Queue: 4 jobs
Job 1
Amino acid sequence: MVAGGGSLLSLPAMVFMGLPGPAANGTNRIAIIAQSVSAVMGFFSRGFSDFRLSATLAIVASIGAYFGAKVGVALDGAWFDRTLAVIIVGVVATMLTGADNPAPVEQNTGRGKNLVLGHVLMLGAGFWGGFIQVALGLIVMPILNRVMGIDLVRTNMHKVTIALVLSIVSLSVFAANVDIAWKAGLALAVGNGIGGWLGANSTVSHGAPLIKKTLIVVLIMMAVKLVFF
């Protein structure tokens, strides 16, 4: 399972198109916001919601996101490319070792455990999300699932709300400091929706293992290009 893996592809792609690192980093948030809104509505329509816990987690994460975005707008040029390449390699390693697999937690309707620790850790997760967003799910989901003991369905429910709120905060910081490519961001938002539909059908037709292997190969190629070309 690759949580929030879209940014792993879209962010390097925008850099390869010629967008400066901070502009690409900020523009990517437009698609994330659109995708998150759709996901939040989808969970709500199926009766999954816990606005109180989602809100407190999102508020804490957004505080971290504000400061993370302040750092993100200053990361440019070769340093941005190298940082992104290192993150991609780290995600690939996580996928290969299976460390991205969730803990087996039974379906529940409770508020979870370790609420204070979960919120403290979410502050750091928010900083990461504001800084670069890539693989945010790989940080947020273990906090919700392993630390707080929330089942996978509700983990995803909280995750998309957290991503929505912190992305709005971080986008505002980037928009105030760099030139956001709004048209590209909106096109990416549409592409995310189409890609999600195609990805779901491909997974059903060919199986998740093939999708995962293909993603790993593509990510390795992108990391090599970021560092050496």
Job 2
Amino acid sequence: MPGDRKQAKLILFVTANGHHLAAWRHPSVPRDAGHSFAHFKDIAQRAEAAALDAIFFADVAAFHLPRETPEAAEYGARAGHFEPITLLSALSAVTTRVGLICTASTTYNEPYHIARKFASLDHLSSGRAGWNLVTSANPNEAANFGKEHHLDHDKRYRRAGEFIDVVTGLWDSWADDAFLRDKDTGRQLDPTKLHVLNHVGSDFRVRGPLNIARSPQGYPVRVQAGSSDDGQELAARTADVVFTAQRTLQGAQAFYRSVKSRLARHGRREQDLLVLPGIVPIVGRSQAEAEAHLSELQQLIHPRAGLAFLSSLLGGVDLSKYDVDGPVPEVPLTDGSRGRQALVLDAARRDGLSLRQTYLRFAGGRGHLQVVGTAQTIADVIEEWLDHEAADGFNLMPAVLPGGLEDFAELVLPELRRRGRFRSGYEGDTLRENLGLPRP
């Protein structure tokens, strides 16, 4: 029966223009999309009208392009964007149900800042906030925070593990009913329901308590995206949602099994952690129409933008001196996003791709699953991954915005609902409730 089928959790991954490298050049995309609140308000309200679980904003506290080739910014797609907590705070006032998730780095922030900001967002939104924990993959961030070099991978994850322990400890500063606000007796709070953290660790010394009442959700939803062994272990111990880049069913199944198998040793159940691979749905009313949409975007990629994009995927290596139609050079894995680097290099080696062919292949979704076809085709893939332990839902990555979201809502969602694979309306008031996650 349709009602017995596993339903997809769907989060909209928002970039200003869309996820295709050349989306900003598409005629349907507003010229000032990255700095237009009206544009993001429109996207957020469309996502809410579609009953999507949440909108999600990634973030990097640095310019995206490599320091070695700053001239490539002339053709770049992501020259600037809003700070996401500020943006989500504004969007919380013009939405009522859709979740609000964004990235904040554990490498270039302090735990008290993050705990306070996301608790505040959770109160502002009446329980719809989520924090995507990252350790930062872009080495350019180091120079913006007084450091000569990016911390190495192992140190970043050690710091991240302690960081999230401090943040959750701060979120536990007050019991749910600690603030009495009793005007008759004059008692503002019950001091017996205060928990002072007094954390002393290898990277942090934080006394606490947090100077805001306990979050409506207990904790804002905790999201992670690391695919390395360290990343999976941290997610199994602390995360509610995991984002991942997987291009094949088999690879997605292996990741799903790997991260879920780690939960028991941390005293958690499999349903306590949702695995959401990214998907780039390019939908048309026919296969030919969908392929025409993709072809139009591919033709808009400037070669210099393509090389700069590929360079960023490979950890910042300078590719400007290589022939764009020659092979991908031998480059070492850096201390950035190792999983993504390995994925790109493996594909280039396996299929004998040139630099141009490589950036064209990954231009749509940076290594995420790209499905080009009709609503039925895309729904078939979503069903297959749900039914074969490859996903609990998806991180939607439209190629262009708002058009790609509009097409997905108009064409794919009705098909998923007809099959019993997606809700017709929100079940709860908070993000945790709609994701089916327990309240801490």
Job 3
Amino acid sequence: MNNPLLFQSTFRIPTTRLEGRDYSEGSYFVTICTQRRKCWFGEIKKQEMHLSEIGKIAERCWNQIPCHFPNVTLDAFVVMPNHIHGILFLQKM
């Protein structure tokens, strides 16, 4: 049975957010890593990234973000073997 209080405050760190700042719009650099840095998204061969099927899914899901969130615009994005980087812009609705 999962106890919702089991990890309460155990793994929390102080927020780095500026108090009073409105984070609902702006530019954000996002990094998403795989669990245990496992190379699920593909591999680099001859200095070129070759996406696995999972990597292709990650890329497709990233590109579909504006379809689900019309106030989000995408910018640069790259899939690496064990993580992705992307820049997105949030606009107020």
Job 4
Amino acid sequence: MPLTVQTIMDALAGVAYATDLDGRILCIGQRGWRLFAVENGALGLANPDVFIGTNLFDALAGADVRMAYARLLERVRRGEPQITLPCRCDAPGVSRDMRMTITPLRRNRTVRGVLFQSITLAERTRPPIRLFEFADQGYPESVPLLGMCSLCERVCPPWADCEDQAAQWMEPERYYAEGGTSQVRISHTVCSGCFRHWVQGWTGMPPPEF
């Protein structure tokens, strides 16, 4: 079998995809992508070919998250050898710790694209949490807003002041134990703790306003 870009991508562990420098998806590791979609019950996303040519930034929820990714891509474009971030990718009944790497793809010593690879480090089953059933959410603006960190997936409840207060961000289980409800609109952002420890050093961004 000839060695092609696709065969290399398919051999990578976890979820792997390559983009150009503007975030347009060029190639996806099909085996890992399909497996991850099936494990999360997202059968409508299991065909990776549908996403070729789409832009990564169109799939990122939250202006702060999109800005952080844009700054990370800029660092890689300027010669950063690799950026590694811890992250979570939870499903309703599964808590999942992952590691994401962002690596430049070079040709003739010039960065031409970026490889994103996310590998699962640990999984824990739990009773289903409806906050992660994103397809079911579509509440009006009158419903309270709940912040969710796109890296650690902790939440900032509507009753808390989470601006620059890492202790106010909590696991979803604690949120429900303290009387939280699923009847909320979710605002995807980066919590103050993840921002200080991981994002700010790479991007130089000012802290987001929660």
